[in-house]
Design brief:
Layout: H1 3-19, E1 24-30, H2 48-55, E2 58-64, H3 69-78, H4 82-85, H5 96-99, H6 114-120, E3 124-130, E4 146-150, E5 165-167, H7 184-200, E6 206-211, H8 223-227, H9 230-233, H10 237-251, H11 271-274, H12 290-323, E7 330-336, E8 350-352, E9 355-357, H13 380-386, H14 399-402, E10 403-409, E11 419-421, E12 425-426, H15 430-438, E13 445-446, E14 449-450, H16 460-463, E15 473-478, E16 481-486, E17 489-493, E18 504-507, H17 523-539, E19 555-556, E20 568-570, E21 574-576, E22 589-596, E23 603-609, E24 614-620, E25 623-630, E26 633-638, E27 647-654, E28 659-664, E29 667-673, E30 686-688, E31 708-716
Parallel strand pairs: 1-6, 1-7, 2-11, 2-12, 3-4, 3-6, 19-21
Antiparallel strand pairs: 2-10, 4-5, 7-10, 8-9, 13-14, 15-16, 16-17, 17-18, 20-31, 21-30, 22-27, 22-31, 23-24, 23-30, 24-25, 25-26, 27-28, 28-29
């Protein structure tokens, strides 16, 4: 083409870009905040700055997530279902060998992050806070120019500055904190503002991802802020839930299809975790002893203070944007990664030296709640308040677990602000939204890897005034808690901690809070939705539906039989979840197995518990080996010769004094002593022929045993 002709085209293109500059983007994600904790969604927590964004933007009433921290982050960052991104359930051990590619435990190479896509189109990219999508790669490996926060684990102390890092490695920290006043939520806010200042000195636009760890446990907040909320939470969850629902009604959030629900049931677990309320509704406030009520008021006041400090930071961000003249053309999205968290029971839990227990705080000890060196959770009953009026919690795909508030603020482009948007959306919609507003491409290949196409839909039509979107299908699965949302219908089931694991069916247009199960009266609709969910499960490779993975042979058992000698009787493929398995804490253990090794050289014969407390009897290079974890410390007893291939009898004895003996028939193969018996509860299942969760040992082979365990007998004394 003639260069003279190109000049006016280039000139017009420049004018177009100048007239319609791409927006700056800020995505704020908080951790374990419930559906109604924000003031704009009915809460009593002081959130004036977020309420300002709501009043001048959009409030999405049906914004779905992936029911837990890390899978939700994977969905938000990639625009994919978390299974497609490699984090089906949780981060950590790579389980692809036995469960399939969805269980990599970290972001895979077949996805791109928001930072990678926007950086490719010229955005500056900044990140702050919690990463939690696999520590093997840092945020700066996945598209972020600058980052401050932590990349390992779901949580860490908010009072220890040394737990947080400035990336890329070698970057000099811009902010110096006083050692006696460091508080991570405030530090995240300060770094967010610092990065905005840096962005102003460079070419626009910028992308900032602010991922707060608040209000996830451990509950940490300055006492001064906490104490402002004490009188409020001394009213108790029953009164406050009603007050929230009244505010939700007066604000227009609640319509005729909403119903004020009772307190959700406490998930099924051992009594020490469920506070003796397993499978029962949380207690009424009046039925809780007075000293326990005061303990609980301090916990919830700390939780509220954490959200309060998040909001204070939003105010500072808004101020910085206004000073730079950037607020009008900055798209701000704010949401939570899941509903409020039930862990544990109505009284919450505490932790000391990695041992979890429920503690009653009284007297002067109450003043320390939320301070340095403490570790508390809020508990399931307060989480019913946080999720008002939705049912259940984080971990579950009922509305209280997988539906969170979403705020969108963009003065330059949002038409008719201060609206409720009632169409179902999902965290997977953030990627296509930012691709559209940022003018970014989503390639088929990136860094020589084939990239999975984006699953979500752009939110831009809602910004432009659309009231309702066309029908869509959204699917969910997290540790066997599954759901499908199609139009107004939702099919959902709980996991093994929910007393009813069968499918439930709700019409959310008529029953927003899942109170009327239509599974019997609309069985044909349920079968239709189940078939669609199953097709999705196979497509995104949910195990065991993924056809290319060996079918899971485990058969879950909820009860165990004993013989006349008091031995529990098990067989290969049995899996007994922790709430039904015998408690091995402070008990001697006796195990007898009848095994045919055949050609197999590796595999777990029997295991119980996991990486903190547990044991495993397995074959390694054909040699019988017994390992146990006591408070995380590994102790191993290994035979020197391989088992014969024919049927043999193996035994393990762990005596009350810690003596360990591994035998075959009458022959002792290995022996020794451990420094004590198990002190903690078994967190993972009792399994015969596998060790499938937080494994006792980092095996060099697939844990599933492909030989034959003819018989397994277990006695605890």
């Amino acid at each position: 083409m003639n260069p003279i002709v190109l000049i006016p085209i280039y000139f017009l293109l420049c004018l177009s870009i100048y007239a319609n500059p791409r927006p700056n983007v800020i995505v704020v994600l908080v951790d374990d905040m419930g559906y109604s904790d924000l003031g704009s969604f009915g809460g009593e927590v002081k959130t004036p700055h977020l309420d300002r964004l709501a009043a001048n933007g959009l409030r999405f009433t049906q914004n779905y997530n992936s029911a837990r921290c890390c899978p939700s982050r994977a969905s938000l960052l990639t625009g994919l279902y978390s299974h497609q991104a490699g984090i089906a359930n949780f981060t950590g051990r790579d389980s692809t060998d036995r469960l399939g590619p969805a269980y990599l435990g970290k972001l895979n190479k077949q996805c791109m992050t928001l930072a990678e896509t926007l950086k490719s189109s010229g955005y500056q990219t900044y990140g702050v806070g919690k990463w939690h999508v696999g520590h093997e790669e840092s945020p700066t490996d996945r598209g972020f120019d600058e980052y401050y926060g932590y990349i390992r684990g779901h949580s860490t102390s908010q009072w220890k500055e040394g737990n947080y890092m400035r990336l890329p490695v070698g970057r000099t920290p811009e902010i110096k904190f006083e050692s006696d006043s460091f508080y991570a939520t405030d530090a995240f806010n300060e770094y967010a503002v610092e990065f905005l200042k840096q962005a102003r000195k460079k070419e626009p636009p910028f992308f900032l991802y602010l991922a707060h760890s608040s209000p996830h446990f451990p509950l940490h907040a300055p006492a001064k802020t906490r104490d402002r909320y004490l009188d409020t939470y001394r009213k108790g969850w029953d009164v406050l839930r009603k007050e929230r629902f009244e505010r939700q009604s007066s604000s227009g959030l609640v319509t005729d299809s909403w119903k004020f629900t009772g307190l959700s049931e406490v998930p099924v677990d051992v009594d020490a975790i469920a506070n003796h309320y397993a499978g029962k509704p949380n207690p009424d406030w009046k039925d809780v002893p007075e000293n326990r009520r005061e303990d609980l008021a301090y916990r919830m006041a700390t939780f509220a203070a954490m959200i309060d400090h998040v909001d204070q930071g939003i105010g500072k961000i808004i101020d910085q944007l206004e000073k730079g003249g950037d607020l009008a053309n900055t798209l701000i999205l704010f949401t939570s990664d899941n509903g409020a968290c039930y862990e544990w029971g109505p009284f919450g839990f505490d932790r000391s030296s990695r041992k979890c227990f429920t503690q009653l705080h009284e007297g002067d000890d109450l003043k320390e709640v939320g301070g340095p060196g403490t570790y508390h959770s809020v508990g399931s009953a307060w989480s019913c308040l946080s999720n008002t009026p939705l049912r259940m919690y984080k971990h579950f795909n009922h509305e209280g677990g997988n539906c969170s508030p979403l705020l969108a603020h963009w003065p330059k482009e949002i038409s008719k602000p201060n609206r409720w948007v009632r169409s179902p959306v999902h965290l997977i919609d953030v990627m296509p939204t930012l691709l559209e507003v940022g003018g970014a491409d989503y390639p088929k290949k990136f860094k020589d890897e084939e990239i999975i196409p984006v699953e979500g839909r752009s939110l831009v039509p809602f910004f432009e005034g659309a009231g309702k979107a066309s029908e869509r299908v959204l699917c969910f699965d997290h540790f066997d808690s599954s759901a499908i949302r199609k139009g107004d219908w939702k099919l959902v089931r709980g996991n093994n901690r929910y007393k009813k694991r069968t499918w439930e069916l709700y019409n959310l247009a008529e029953d927003r809070c899942e109170t009327k199960n239509l599974i019997e009266s609309s069985s044909d609709k349920a079968k239709e939705l189940e078939a669609e969910w199953l097709a999705w499960a196979k497509r995104v490779k949910v195990n065991p539906y993924y056809s290319h993975v060996q079918q899971n042979l485990a058969k879950e058992r909820t009860s165990l039989k004993k013989d006349a000698q008091g031995f529990y009787l098990l067989k290969q493929g049995d899996r007994v979840n922790r709430e039904h398995a015998p408690d091995f804490s402070q008990k001697a253990i006796e195990i007898h197995l009848a095994v045919t090794r055949g050609k197999e050289k590796g595999g777990v014969l029997i295991s119980h518990g996991g990486s903190r407390n547990g044991y495993s009897l397995y074959l390694e290079d054909g040699k019988p080996t017994f390992s146990c974890r006591l408070g995380g410390a590994l102790h191993t007893f290994r035979a020197t010769q391989a088992l014969p291939k024919d049927r043999i009898s193996l035994s393990v004895l762990v005596a009350a004094d810690g003596r360990v003996s591994l035998g075959m028939g009458d022959e002792v193969l290995a022996e020794g002593k451990v420094p004590g018996l198990f002190k903690g509860l078994p967190q993972d299942p009792l399994e015969v022929g596998n060790d499938s969760q937080s494994t006792v040992v980092s095996y060099s082979f697939s844990p599933r045993f492909k030989g034959k365990v003819h018989e397994a007998k277990l006695k605890l004394k």
